[in-house]
Structure formats: C-alpha cells, structure tokens
Design goal:
Layout lengths: L5 E6 L3 H12 L6 E6 L2 H9 L5 E5 L1 E2 L2 E2 L2 H9 L4 E6 L4 H9 L4 E4 L7 H20 L6 H9 L3 E6 L4 E3 L1 H7 L11 H8 L4 E7 L7 E11 L5 E11 L6 E8 L35 H11 L5 H26 L2 H17 L3 H16 L2 H25 L4
Parallel strand pairs: 1-2, 1-3, 3-6, 6-7
Antiparallel strand pairs: 4-5, 8-9, 8-13, 10-11, 11-12, 12-13
Helix pairs in contact: 1-10, 2-3, 5-6, 10-11, 10-13, 11-12, 12-13
Length: 398
C-alpha cells in the first residue's frame, strides 16, 4: 500500500467537474491522493512554480486558454510533471492531438468507475518518468517498466542502430519479445516512423532544444498465435547525436478506460454530435440511469449528492444568467463558453436534454448563427428552473 500521497493539481474552471474528480480520488481504495485546484492556467502556473505537484489533470477549455495552448504553457513551466487531459469530447482525433502536444494521457469527463482515475494517474507518472530518462539518453528504469506491466501497459524502447528494451506487458499484448535476432514487426516499424495508424503527430520544443516528435493512434496487431489485438499507442522520439531513442507505449483499447459509462455524462463527439443520450421518460427532466450511477458512486457517503446538487444549483443559475446577459449584448464567444460549462454541469446530474441543448448552442456558436443562439439561450433559461426544482426535490441542499 502506498504511503506517500500523489500530489494532483486539478485545472478546471467548472466546479462540478473538479468536485467529481476530487471526490473520486479521495475515495480511491488504493493509494492516497492530495488534490489542489486551479480554475485558470495562470493560477496553475503559479502553483506549479511552487513545486509539490506530481500530475496535472487539465481541462482544455479554460477562461484564459483554449485547446492545447494551456497544455503547452504547462509543459514549458513544469516539463517533469505528468499531464492527463480531461475532455468533454470523445473524438479520437481531438483528444489524441492533446497527446501529440505533450500530454501523457486523456480521459473523457463523466462518472468515473472506481479505480479509473488512480490508474490513469499512475500510468501517466510512469510514462513521464520513462520519457525523462530517454530525454537524458538513459535506458528506462527497470522498476518503471515492471510497474507499467502490472498496470497492463506495454512498453518498447528502440535504440537507433539496433537494440530494444521491452517489458512483460508488451510481450503479452503483442506476442513479440523482440529478443535475440527477431526482426522488428512491420506494424511497430510503421508506428515508429509515423507511416501507419497515426491519428495525430506534433512537435514539442523543450528549453529551446531540438523538437521531439510525438504521436498517437490505434493499430491492429497480428499476434503469432493468430489472435488479432486492437491496441492504442503513444509514440515519442528523442533524437540526439549518437544514440537516439523511440519509445512506444501500448495498451488494449478499452471504452471503460475512457470514462464513458453509458449514458455518457458530459461527452460529445464534436461538431454534429447531439450530446449525451437520455433514458429519462419523455416528460422527466432527469435521467434515471445517471442517478443510478451517482448513487453507486456515492455509496454510503450521505453528504456527496446533496453537496453536488447544491453546487450545481448555485453554479447553474450563475451560468444561465451569464448566457442571458451575453445573448442580450450579442457576445457569441461568451455564450459558447458559458454553454460549454453548463453542458457539463447538467450532464453530471442527469439533465441530459438540457445538456444536449447546450451542446447544440456550442455548435451554433461555431457556425456563427447568433439569432439561433439567442433562441436556444431563451429555451435553456425557460427549462432550467424545471431541472432545478427536480433536483431540489430529490436532494434538497443542506
């Protein structure tokens, strides 16, 4: 059992999202996590400057940063710290672009199964430890490789001019040990060269040095026993004069690992996606399946759900007021930002119809359709009180 707390910085301007993450980590059955919170990149950089952070859980949509800009700034300020992106999108191209920009991993926001966040954090920290050694042109630490095997993560580090270091999980996943005179499989050569299966690639500058190529994607491996394996991978290359390294991290593709318990609270697949699906009765403002998950998550803690609802009622009302004010002055970007936050907050508590309307409002913002945006804002303001009343009736704030 771990005794040293893992120091986690949650960077998210949505209090509900941050609270779910913090609650999940404080109730992890294995390990101890100490969480701090920042609502903006500027605040996160201040906390990172004080040290004492092992991993950053980062939302890509913040008041002072959009997309991978905040990730780049965190990487520059704290290159040794692991980063896991928390996103409201299940679009593989979008989330893997974050990995290509330097994140160690990503998770789709939602109601995380027990153990999922802790697993992702441990894996991300180990990935960063291995990357840091390879940046210094050192062989990966055996203990890190073995711990990743225990967590089901395969690793292969390839050295220019021949030679490979693998862990046991790599052999289990792929059926290849790369030992002796065995040749590098074509699929691995393709990943290392960026010629196959790569959804996103990027370059990350570190302290003014030469840029390091990054990439991520999925690949289907034909194992020697005839069983195909569908794997998700991350590739990092560390060029240098003399001895250069390429490392590939592998794991089995798993929908659960992405936090996408059905229905998917808060998640959408990008433009054109209608948002989370509801199992609520036609006239019910709340989704029953989401509440089953929330009750399971709360367990015997009688304070969790009332606190979550109280925070939503306060934050939700503020966001609706922000939407109405932005619509009155025709401020489309402000409407989109508020809709994004309200979408996630609504989905957390099963108000999936309202969450979908917020997702539609976001898309109309991308299209620049201000008249339709104002109409949707009016609909959201009209329907929010019904959701609030249903929540207050089920779980009165106390």
């Amino acid at each position: 059992m771990e005794t040293t707390p893992v120091r986690v910085l949650v960077v998210d301007d949505n209090p509900g999202d941050a609270r779910l993450v913090e609650w999940a980590l404080t109730h992890e059955p294995e390990g101890t996590f100490r969480c701090e919170r920042a609502g903006r990149i500027a605040a996160a950089l201040e906390q990172l400057g004080r040290g004492a952070v092992d991993v950053v859980l980062l939302d890509l949509g913040l008041p002072d940063s959009q997309g991978t800009d905040g990730l780049r700034r965190i990487r520059e300020a704290a290159p040794a710290v692991a980063v896991v992106v928390l996103t409201g999108s299940e679009n593989p191209a979008l989330v893997r672009a974050a990995i290509a920009a330097g994140a160690q991993d990503y998770l789709v926001k939602g109601i995380f199964p027990r153990g999922l966040l802790a697993h992702a954090i441990r894996v991300a920290i180990l990935h960063r430890e291995i990357e840091t050694r390879l940046e210094a042109h050192q062989i990966p630490d055996v203990a890190s490789l073995e711990e990743l095997s225990r967590l089901g993560e395969g690793v292969v580090a390839l050295m220019d001019g021949g030679g490979a270091t693998v862990n046991a999980a790599f052999t289990e996943l792929t059926g290849s040990s790369l030992s002796g005179s065995s040749e590098t499989p074509p699929w691995l050569t393709g990943i290392a060269s960026g010629s196959v299966g790569t959804d996103a690639r990027g370059r990350l500058d570190r302290d003014g040095s030469s840029a390091t190529p990054f990439g991520a994607g999925e690949v289907t491996v034909a194992r020697p026993d005839g069983r195909p394996a569908q794997l998700e991978y991350v590739v990092r290359q560390f060029p240098a004069e003399g001895r250069s390294w390429t490392v590939v991290f592998l794991r089995a593709v798993s929908r659960e690992r992405r936090g996408t318990v059905s229905p998917t609270p808060g998640a959408s697949s990008g433009p054109g996606d209608p948002g989370p699906r509801s199992s609520a009765a036609p006239n019910e403002p709340l989704d029953a399946a989401t509440w089953v998950q929330l009750r399971e998550l709360a367990g015997t803690d009688a304070t969790f759900l009332p606190a979550l609802v109280a925070a939503f009622l306060e934050e939700g009302r503020r966001l609706v007021q922000t939407l109405e004010a932005a619509a009155a002055r025709g401020d489309a970007p402000a409407i989109v930002r508020a809709a994004h936050s309200l979408k996630s907050s609504c989905a957390q508590l099963g108000a999936l119809a309202l969450s979908r309307r917020c997702a539609t409002l976001e898309m109309q913002g991308e299209a620049g359709n201000l008249p339709r945006m104002k109409s949707l804002v009016a609909e959201i303001a009209r329907d929010f009180p019904e959701v609030s009343n249903a929540l207050a009736t089920r779980y009165p704030a106390r």
